[in-house]
Automatic annotation (TrEMBL), chain A:
This is ATPase. Pfam families: AAA. Residues 34-198 form the AAA+ ATPase domain. InterPro entries: AAA+_ATPase (IPR003593), ATPase_AAA_core (IPR003959), CbbQ/NirQ/NorQ/GpvN (IPR050764), P-loop_NTPase (IPR027417).
UniProtKB/TrEMBL annotation, chain B:
It comes from the Bacteria. This is von Willebrand factor A. It comes from Kibdelosporangium persicum. It holds the Pfam family VWA_CoxE. PANTHER family: BLL5662 PROTEIN-RELATED, BLR6139 PROTEIN. The lineage of its organism: Bacteria, Bacillati, Actinomycetota, Actinomycetes, Pseudonocardiales.
Length: 285, 447
């Protein structure tokens, strides 16, 4: 058990620089208590990956990260035999028989552990982050089932390796495709959405402490207005923080039309969105 | 009702709204309750959501059902409700203070004071959010809330603040609706309220009956949805490339090995992306559906070598250029099509007879052997001739053709609908919700 109560989760994550909502704190606490992986979904830039990092930092765990991409396979995710080293070993022991050689080259020494195996074998507290799970192929999910369901990995030559200490697992997904039901069933589900204004204000104040209270407040207010528009990509927390930093660098101490007009590109990444926002907020520079 | 019983009936109510939580999830939910206890309602809500939900679009339904099965209060407020003016003043203070708790208290008092309709406990009586909101009229409080905030924002920030208060008022309206559902559930049993009064999530809402807010929600989902559909189409394309066995060439090859098919020959995969032609009924009743589908195919355009869009009411006109520009103002697309394209001849009632004829006469060259045609419409021809000959010409030229009908299947060919006549010529599918549309797109579109 990493945490004793929901309040403790909120407190310690805040200490690691991550402000939680009720949903996030409760779900992290449950994932720890029930020993289930946590599947985090939500728009880009709301702090899904950051959550895993904060949990690791708050609990003093080691963070093991598996970045998924199209075509990722067992050799990249689980383990791989070190073929070159095995060949060397075989040539070094020329006189020995087949049985000794075979018994020797399939041992721990020749095993290259990839993130999943590393996390399972680690005796220290571990946070395993499987990032952008939706980018991996469907076949990869089958592989994850054994790891996440029973926290064990079967290496045919060595046998089954079971976790001595269950890692805290966080899977993130941008929902570009539906993950399989089997995988979702094994996880607790957390949808992180854009934060409510109060929490976002605190986040901005924490990340960019130099920015003044009034500027931060009106910044968050404008971001809220932008999210209410029908945009292709609504700004998320990452953009809010970027914007605060930009305004700080420009030395602006309050938001006015011209400064919003010139810096809107920091927040909105599509030209169509920018035009839309300029027209709707009536900021014409 | 004991906690496990309540939990099980809660999960059953969720299942009725197509949130399919199995027994495994229910056991998880029970564990969640055991760990969290029942002290903090918001934590219980989040905990159960984590155990029972599997995708993000399900949250609105979940919240509504949760409020019924784990209500925040029982019965009406204890203190005497004030008169209308004092309630309005309380609401102004609550909105200006931004405190959700105070707003909820006003919502409770408002339902208690003005929401009651009918008499007795059986059948007729209940609590109405509509009635309470009619008396309270929260949207007229905007100016007073702004005054109470003493906001003196410069320039455009004043507008931003005004919109913010408007959103808060909309949030308050939802609180009143929740409260009305809760009180009605106490009267009539939560099962029946959960079944009938919970609004579906936007991807299951009917195109034909969706309100403005729901249509806006749908449009907001277009880009994530198009990404998801593109991934599904790409996966289908990848699988298709592995190819089927070409029997003739495999047999021919096997002769060299004495009739044993040592090397199977695969059918060649034709490279190149398909073309798509949309023919949309833009008349009032089905315009929302056509609008959404046009925007979705536009977002999916890189999956096709060419997308052309045609709209009709009485006569047909090409609107490809308007749809292309539509990304900048998705809400106004239908209006612009009506303004800039020539769709009307006399009275503005849809006329499939003439519209199909015009398309077959003037735009048939848009359809080639690689083209898939999607026809969107309800097939309600106001009593005119179906003009199946023109439809046959259109379908005959295309590689594939489908008709997507936003009406429920049981209404086809009722009244002036010619759905079954058209369905005899072209494959017709019921397409009432975003969910059905995305299923159809991934299944039907060629790759």
């Amino acid at each position: 058990m990493l945490f004793d109560s929901v309040d403790e989760v909120a407190q310690r994550l805040a200490g690691a620089g991550y402000l939680t909502s009720t949903a996030i704190a409760t779900t992290v606490f449950l994932a720890d208590r029930l020993g289930k992986p946590l599947l985090v979904e939500g728009p880009a830039g709301v702090g899904k990956t950051e959550l895993a990092r904060a949990v690791a930092q708050a609990t003093g765990s080691q963070l093991v990260r598996l970045q998924c991409y199209e075509g990722i396979d067992e050799a990249r995710a689980l383990y791989e035999w070190n073929h070159a080293k095995q060949l060397l070993r075989i040539t070094a022991g020329r006189d020995e028989g087949w049985h000794e050689a075979r018994a020797d080259i399939f041992t721990e020494e020749f095993l290259l552990a990839r993130p999943l195996l590393t996390a399972i074998r680690n005796a220290e507290p571990t946070v395993l982050l499987i990032d952008e799970t939706d980018k991996a192929d469907v076949e990869m999910e089958g592989l994850l089932l054994e790891v996440l369901g029973d926290f064990q990995i079967t290496v045919p030559e060595l046998g089954t390796i079971t976790a001595t200490r269950k890692p805290f697992v966080v899977l993130t997904s941008n929902a570009t495709r539906e993950l399989s039901e089997a995988l979702k069933r094994r996880c607790l589900f957390l949808h992180i959405d854009f934060p409510e204004a109060g929490r976002e204000l605190e986040i901005v104040r924490m990340q960019v402490p130099e920015v003044s209270e009034t500027l931060a407040a009106s910044l968050v207010r404008v971001i809220g207005a932008l999210r209410a528009l029908e945009l292709r990509k609504s700004p998320s927390i990452a953009e809010t923080i970027d914007w605060a930093r930009t305004l700080l660098a420009l030395g602006a101490d309050q938001l006015d039309e011209s400064i919003v007009h010139t810096t809107l590109g920091v927040v909105l990444k599509y030209e169509a969105d920018r035009k839309r926002a300029v027209a709707d907020l009536k900021v014409f520079g | 009702m004991s906690v496990p019983e309540r939990l099980v009936s809660f999960v059953e109510a969720l299942r009725e709204h197509s949130i399919l939580a199995g027994p495994g999830e229910t056991v998880d939910a029970a564990r969640v309750l055991a760990v969290l206890g029942m002290d903090d309602r918001e934590r219980v809500r989040e905990g159960l959501a984590a155990a029972l939900l599997r995708r993000s679009g399900q949250r609105t339904v979940f919240d509504q059902v949760f409020d019924l099965y784990f209500p925040g209060a029982v019965g009406g407020p204890t203190d005497e409700p004030g008169d209308l003016e004092s309630l309005r003043e309380q609401l102004v203070q609550a909105l200006a203070g931004g405190s959700a708790q105070q707003q909820a208290a006003v919502a409770q008092a408002a339902i208690e004071a003005f929401g009651r309709f009918g008499e007795g406990t059986q059948g007729a009586g209940g609590w109405s959010a509509y009635q309470a909101l009619q008396r309270l009229r929260p949207e007229t409080l905007l100016v007073r809330v702004l005054a109470a905030l003493r906001a003196d924002d410069p320039g455009f920030l004043a507008d931003v603040r005004r919109d913010e208060v408007r959103r808060q008022i909309a949030g308050f309206r939802r609180m009143v609706e929740t409260e009305a559902r809760r009180r009605t559930a106490e009267l009539r049993g939560r099962e029946s309220v959960a079944r009938n009064a919970v609004a579906p999530p936007s991807d299951r809402a009917d195109f034909l009956t969706a309100g403005r807010a729901q249509l806006a929600d749908m449009r907001r989902a277009i880009y994530p949805l198009s990404r998801k559909l593109a991934t599904r189409l790409a996966a289908r394309r990848r699988r298709a490339r592995r190819g089927e066995i070409d029997v003739r060439r495999t047999l021919r090859r096997s002769i060299a090995y004495g009739g044993v098919p040592v090397k199977p020959a695969y059918r060649h995969h034709r490279p190149g992306r398909p073309e798509l032609v949309l023919l949309c009924d833009m008349s009032g009743s089905v315009a929302g559906f056509a609008n959404f589908t046009l925007l979705l195919t536009q977002a999916l355009r890189d999956q096709f070598s060419k997308v052309r869009a045609f709209a009709f009411v009485e006569t047909t006109d090409e609107v490809t250029h308007l749809v292309k520009a539509g990304a900048e103002d998705p809400a106004g697309l239908a209006t612009r099509i009506h303004q800039e394209a020539r769709l009307i001849r006399w009275d503005g009632h849809s006329d499939y007879t003439h519209a199909l004829q015009v398309f077959a006469d003037e735009y048939l060259d848009a359809i080639g052997p690689r083209t898939s045609v999607l026809i969107l419409g309800d097939g309600r021809n106001n009593g005119g001739d179906p003009n199946l000959a023109a439809l046959r010409r259109i379908v005959g030229n295309a590689r594939r053709a489908y008709w997507l009908n936003p009406e429920p299947r049981r209404l086809w060919s009722t009244g002036d609908s010619l759905a079954h006549e058209y369905a005899g010529v072209v494959e017709m599918h019921e397409c009432r919700t975003v969910h059905q549309l995305s299923e159809l797109i991934t299944r039907l579109l060629p790759i």
